[in-house]
Amino acid sequence: MKLHSWISVLLLVYKVTAELEADVFPVDNEVDSIQQEVIQETRKNGTDESSSVPPSSELLSLEDPVQYNFQENLNLTPLPNNFLLASFQFYMQSETFGVNRNEHESNVYSHHTVFPKPVGPIMSQTNTRQLHLRFTHGLWDSQEWGQLPHSGLKSGGNGVELWAVIEGPSKEKAMQSWITLANSLSGLFCASINFIDSSKTTFPVSSFLPTEDDAIPLFNENSSLYLIRAALANEPICTENLTPFVKLLPTRGKSGISSLLDGHKIFDSNWHSLSIDVNTICEDNTGECHYSMEEFVETVVNVPNSLARADRPIPKPLGGDELRCDTNKPHDAFQCFPLPGSREVDFNISKLFGKKICGSSLLGKTSSKICAHVPSNWNVMVQVGDLLFTTDDNCFNVNSNEPHDVHFETSDSGNVLISKETPLHVSRALTGYGQDRGGLRSVFRNPSNQPVELVYFESLPWFMRVYLSSLALESDDSDLTLDSVVKSTFYSPARDRERPTHLERKLVIPPNSTLALSFQFDKSLLKYAEYPPDANHGFEIEAAVATITSPERYEARSSSLLLYLSTPDFSMPYNVIILTSTVMGLAFGTLFNLISKQLLTLEEADRILASTSPKAKLLRLKGKIIGLLKRNNTKPAKIAKSE
């Protein structure tokens, strides 16, 4: 750039600085005109010179801050029996990247804004096109609360559940990428996902399929896409798993809705779920791709219990003046029949989660949003500073940096919005009591007036040897047969210590009916080293998954099971050590005696004992003393003779 161009730029900068010092801020049109003048001045000398100008030389308006593809929402829904569902939802998008670019070139770099930096390299290194991770714990009461949030698509069974779509030239290569993905996620989320191996991995056929809207790209035409899944039913969920979830957010839990995420409050609940979904989206016309990520944290808390713990961190019995006794029954200072909990509730979200919302995230293109789904008898207000605000739809935008709080009050907490009824109730239990064999019984109840079509997925460990020929149907309807319920079956038999049993059945449950499917299995014996430290606790069996395809899309999961196997007496190693030490001591002692001691006859032993006895020693000592005295007496006589 020539000297006169730089002079013009400096003059324009000086002009803007003078206006700022005089507290005269130009309007947007004036700022745009100044930017255009600078751009035109710097581009007068040709395209080559203008291309060398760094982007930072262009003046940006301070009134229009940079906004990113980030969005956060908080949905609050009261449930029956004084429960509250809190759903934290975060959406973010990465920068675009080319499919065929060479990342090893020195002039190629990755630019990160709101999308978490660790996720991108994991997706690219393992050739993962879709990633779904679930951390779930607790019991969702579908009888009282209705359907799961998001039709059950954002929650899993108890423990950890992971499935992904991986691109690879062969199934073996995809399996290697899958193991690498599990190990990487294990370190990222401080979980035991690295225990996932081939013995816990399945390749679903009809379940966990991507939706029609998800167009999964294929970067290499010579490769294929593989859907892989695994679960760990015995994985506990705790605060060390929530912290990495919060760190993935651009706000890091310091501002916005994520500031409410406290592990002690989230996990002190009846049910909670953490989920992450990452999709790869590509544009057909440009060839550019980007990652889209959804991160959900959902919890169900009991409002009276949470408020009581907030007021009394150390549990103490209520005083006599605080007890609400039934006056129709005998009551005195020592006897009281308590009344049911009061239906009048009045609480703030800050009391449930321990703190207020620390303003807006100030990063997204849209404001942080809080919505309360309540009927008309509830009053919902948002508190900003000392002011209270309300809206017609009970949705509030968080725009300022001041602390925000949400206030709920009602005279009848039992009056809540009617939840959508679950299309199908699924439960599963173990049968039998022996240590060599058992059974598995699944119960399906259809409360609707139309048939329900579903895919029932089960992954059973290899030490459960399933007998498909023992499949039986139990129903009150005598006209119902096994062929009319089970339309098709996919079965992949287990291999010892290599892969689990994989079962997928397409079922049709008649309307307003309840039926059960059961089969038998044998229990295998494990090697000594294959038992966990708490072997007597049993082995966790992951939940079964029912993917409902008609009349609506919904996912339901059964509870996990606890299977008891024949467990050896682990005190035996101690007994073996003691017995072995005793035998070794006896053998060594005998051999040592044979080597170090001499064998003698009884007469020789008597002579030796007689010569070594104390009496013999005294006699020898006496003889020596007498001999010495005799020698001393003979010496003077010899001297006298010589004289």
TrEMBL record:
Residues 1-18 form the signal peptide. The chain crosses the membrane at residues 572-595. GO terms for cellular component: GPI-anchor transamidase complex. Keywords: Membrane, Signal, Transmembrane, Transmembrane helix. Pfam families: Gpi16 (PF04113). The keyword Cell membrane does not apply. GO terms for biological process: attachment of GPI anchor to protein. This is WGS project CCBQ000000000 data, contig 00107. It comes from Kluyveromyces dobzhanskii CBS 2104.
